[in-house]
Amino acid sequence: MLSDEEKFRFDLEGYLIIPGVLSLAECAQLSELSDAAWPQQPHDGAFRRAAQVSLWGNNFSNLMDHPKVLPYLIDLIGPRARLDHDYAIYMQRGAPSQPIHGGPMRYESDHWYHYNDGVMRNGLMVATWVLTDAKPGDGGFVCVPGSHKTNFINLLPEDAQSQDAMPEYVRQPAVNAGDVILFTEALMHGTRAWQGSDERRVLLFKYSPPHSSWAKQGYDLNDYPDATAQQRRLMAPPSVEDHAKVIDTKS
Ligand SMILES: O=C(O)CCC(=O)C(=O)O
């Protein structure tokens, strides 16, 4: 559940950092397990991306409804939130930038942020599990704070969008291993070239409201024999009528 200050910040900036959700030992364990599940290949470049890390074992799939993060997602998406897709981004020093994208309803109908009568709601949302530190200037996740409410999405200069320039309104939040970055895809955001000395390692779990799906294909529950009832509700296909509440809540 968001505190009053977190509500203020999310509404103001379109993202939040939940500090220290995982311990350093848990981050190291996830990192080690990921090396076994997704070993680096000789032809891999400095930027690596892997789909569906939730299939790498229960340590990964259990992140989808982590008790410290799920209540935030329910507050921001609603009680019938669904897990849409998940993946990893690993970047070595010199890995290139990915342009700034997202923003409210530019091309994608599920990128939105609404506020009404005390309630915040979002389309596609992201929980980024940070396994390694990103210090100021290292790169990685960048965003334009407040742009989830912009009326001038098309006026972001091209060099800022491509990240050839970094105007002061583009921010790279510093994060520590174990933090979770929560952001709405209505926020303009991207990936900045990695300058850190260690490999950047993040796991991204993306969530949708009950009626929408960004992914082409949803989760096959047969792939998750150990999934709990709550995780099954979370991975259920999109439906307004049919998508059950993930956790029991009166809202
Ligand atoms: O953390 C990052 O590198 C940004 C990922 C991204 O652009 C996205 O989730 O759409």
Determine the mean pLDDT. Answer: 96
Please give the oligomerization state of what you see.
single chain
Q: How many separate structural domains?
A: 1
User: What is the name of the CATH topology?
Assistant: Jelly Rolls
- The CATH superfamily name is q2cbj1_9rhob like domain
Q: Determine the strand fraction and express it as a percent band.
A: 15-25%
- Can you list the strand order of the major beta sheet? 1-9-7-11-3-2
CATH architecture assignment = Sandwich
Can you describe what's shown?
With 251 residues, the chain is of the alpha+beta class. It has a single domain, classed as q2cbj1_9rhob like domain (Jelly Rolls). It has 6 helices and 11 strands. It is globular and about 45 Å long. The longest helix is centred in the first third of the chain and has 14 residues. It has a 6-stranded antiparallel sheet. The mean pLDDT is 96. 19% of the residues lie in helices and 24% in strands. The site of 2-oxoglutaric acid has 10 residues, from β7, β8, β10 and β11. 2-oxoglutaric acid (AKG) binds next to β7, β8, β10 and β11.
Q: Secondary-structure map with pairings?
A:
Blueprint: H1 4-13, E1 15-18, H2 24-37, E2 47-51, H3 58-61, H4 70-77, E3 82-91, E4 98-102, E5 113-116, E6 119-122, E7 125-130, E8 140-143, H5 158-161, E9 180-184, E10 188-192, E11 200-208, H6 229-235
Antiparallel strand pairs: 1-9, 2-3, 3-11, 4-10, 5-6, 7-9, 7-11, 8-10
Residues 89, 126, 128, 140-141, 189-191, 202, 204 line the site of 2-oxoglutaric acid.
